[in-house]
Each structure stands twice: as C-alpha cells, then as structure tokens.
Prior knowledge:
Blueprint: E1 10-11, E2 24-27, H1 35-38, E3 50-55, E4 61-63, H2 76-80, E5 83-93, E6 97-114, E7 121-139, E8 142-152, E9 170-185, E10 188-198, E11 200-202, E12 215-223, E13 227-235, E14 243-250, E15 257-274, E16 281-295, H3 305-313, E17 320-321, E18 328-335, E19 354-368, E20 381-390, H4 399-402, H5 429-447, E21 452-453
Parallel strand pairs: 4-11, 12-21
Antiparallel strand pairs: 1-7, 2-8, 3-5, 5-8, 6-7, 6-9, 9-10, 12-13, 13-14, 14-18, 15-16, 15-17, 15-19, 19-20
Amino acid sequence: MEASSSRLPSYTPPSKDAISIVPSLSALHPDPTHPAHSALLLNLDLKKDSVKIFSFSQGGIILCPEEVRDSSRASVEQEESWAKAGGYLQVVSTQRKIVPQISVKIVARQSLSFPQDRGGSREEDEVFAKEVVLKDVQLEKGLNSFEFLLALPHSAPVHAGSTRDRKAFATLFHYAIGTVSGFKGFFGSKDLVAEEQVYVVAAPSMGSSDDSLRLALRVEGHTEELGPCSLEASSSHFMVAGPLRIFLSLHSPPPTLRVYAIKVYIEQKGDLTSFRFRPTKTTRVLLKGSVLESGWKGPYGSNSLSRLLQDGREGEEMLFDASVGDAWTFEQVARIPDDMVLRPSTYPQTDTSIRISSELVVDLYFTLTPTDPPSTPTKVMIASVLRQPVFLAGCGCLPDRLSLPNYTPRPEVFVPIEVRVPCKCDEPTEKLLDEEKELLSSFRAAALGSSLPLEGNEFRNDASASLGRKVGEAY
C-alpha cells in the first residue's frame, strides 16, 4: 500500500558495497489491475502476518563477464550496464503499523568440500550479497506491495552445481530474500522472512553474434601409426547437455592397423580455493564426462587384451581393419553430459573460488600387427587424436534467452508460481540430435575452414598422447 505522507519510505544504503544508481525498493499503489495484485492474492492468507517474495528473474539472471573492463574499479557506465534482478515483495499485516525496516537482498551461498586437504571438511559461506533497504515504513492493514530492483555486476559469482545434487564437491546457489522487521512474536519482536531461489548464469556478451556458442575445430596431419588423418569436432551449441559432432577420417592407414574403439569425452579440472585458511589453499578436483563410445566396451587392461583381440578377429568389436580397407571414416552426433556430470567453464573475469577449465579429448584405441616377423599384437595403443582446451558454456545459455532482455520492469503477464529455469538438460535427446544433424551440411562448409597442425606424435600403452595443442575456441 502507499505509505502515508508523514512516513515516506526512504532508500538507505545498507553497506559500503551498496550501489546507489539503479537499486530501488518502493511501495506500490493499491491498484487491483497491477500485475502484483492480479494473481498473488490467490496464494496469500490475509488473516495473519506474512511475507512472500516473487522474482521476475525466476528464469535466470544472465551475467556477461566479457563486458567487465576493469575488475579493480568499476566505472559509472559499467554499473549502469549491470544485470538487473527485480520482483515484488508482498507483506500482509493484520493491523496498520510502522515497521522499522524492510529489506530485499540477493545472496550467494557457497559450499566447498576439501576431501584431500582436511579429511573431508566442508566449508559453507555466504560469498556475495546485494541489498536494498527501506526505513520506517507505514504498513496498512491487509496487503502491502513493494517492488524491488537490484543490480548485479557481471563479475559476480554464478550458479555452480546441479540443484539435483546438492552434496556435490562444490555448489553455489543464489536466493532472493525479503525481510520485514518489527512484528510481534512470543518473545518480543520478530522478523518475517521469505526467500526464493534465483539462478545467476554467465553467458557470452549480449552483443555477440549467433555464433557465440558454436565450436569449430579441425586437425589434420600424418603419423607413422595412423597415416594421414583428419578430425573435425563441431557443435552449434557447445554447452552442458548440448550436441557434439565428431568426424574422423583415416585417409591411407597402414595395412597393419586395427581400430577397436573410439572414445570422446570432456575432461575438467575444478580448482577450489579456501579463504578460511592462511595461506590460502587450493584443491583440484577432476571431472570426466563421456560424450560417446563406439567399439569395444570392455576394459583395456592386460587381462582383457586376449578377449579384445579374439572379438576383433571375429569382427564383432573391431571398428576398422586396414588389411581389408583402404580408408576409414567415422561420423557421429552425440550429446554432452548434463549438469549432474559436468560444469560450465569459468570466465576469467568471474570473481569466484570455484574455477572450472575444460578439455575436449578424442581417444583412438588400436593395435599394429607386427610384420617382422608376423605375429599377433601384444598391446593396445591409445592415441589422443584431439586434446584441446575448450570453453564449455552453461546449460542455461539458450540462444533465445541471450537475444532477449533479462529484465522487464512491468511484464504484461506475471505468473507467480514456481518456474522451471529454461535449461538445455530438459531438451529431449532425440530432438536435440535431429536438429544438429539438419545443420551439418551448411555448418560444416561454413564453420570448419581452418586447420590445426598435428604435433607430438607419441603413442604409448598406458596413457594418451596429444596430437593437437592449439587452443580450441567457442565463438
């Protein structure tokens, strides 16, 4: 309700970190046609003191770390371009009264596990907060509506971890919290508090082209073991739970080559930094998400070698036998694992103690039949035909969301119910792969133009070798 003329709400910065350009918290007129009133009353009990918060940002707050120019000192222009988070705070009061304070803030709560450093210890901290406050607010009897607006810097920490797996090695979740002070309780005054989870994700700059989420990699070269070969890795949306196309060609392999399997996966390194201890400690966590596996599905230890060779001779598990073919091509479109397995890569500009880096790896499992003297192969060799650092976008970076504003002050339709955040993980696999296959003919000709040299042609039985070392880019 509108505050009385003698008690007009006033904005008070809560701390030195508060900004005074965009944030606001203001009382709304009791207009029954206003979107804050049209549907929210259905979920409110007007017979008891209560508070509820509804965010416009249920579908996600999109930050663009690439827009950060100077992390040490933000200019006025930068602050005005910060991401906006707004919504309504609904306060039900059973009597007309003045409350000392109403506040709304967005906080980030982080949880880190350090199993290697301190015997399984877990740190839980509030690592980020932005707040707006009203002092000495007049509440009318019944429903009182307040609209809030907060600004988040593009360098702020972003969502980390799946909401389906809150016991993961590292999580970071954001919440919008509304607090009204000065209501009566059993033991004096109490605060009414309401909170709602909001999603803060990092994405390419809003001014980027439609290619901002694409991956286009190509390696070409010649090795003694494989002969002349080329590999293409492409994706129209290179992101968690997105599609990935692999095309491998062995143009003129040696006749002694037998290919048993190809494995494609994304390997991630997570650096977790603790700020509770001095000197600061950082723990590295390794993640691996399999994208596709074709061919022999069993283990590759010495005990399984005889079985692999037997199955290969019977033609059941072998992908390619160069003794009966002059060339070999492999092409498949697969799906990158979802957010239960992999995390999005971290932008350099993001201020966070959870940093994820990613590598795309394509391993080829093969044998070379000895010719002098002729005999059965005694070992399986593994070649990393591709091992490239890549930037993996988050599953919330859907193209239609990146092309639309992430905040509208007065939406035409406001639905105050729980909303599932738009996410690539929710897209059916069959639909996703079919759409990617439709793009192959045009995308392959347009996007895969440059080549990367093959380097470090080394093969060994117990580890993979890197053939291409130039950084791949999602652009």
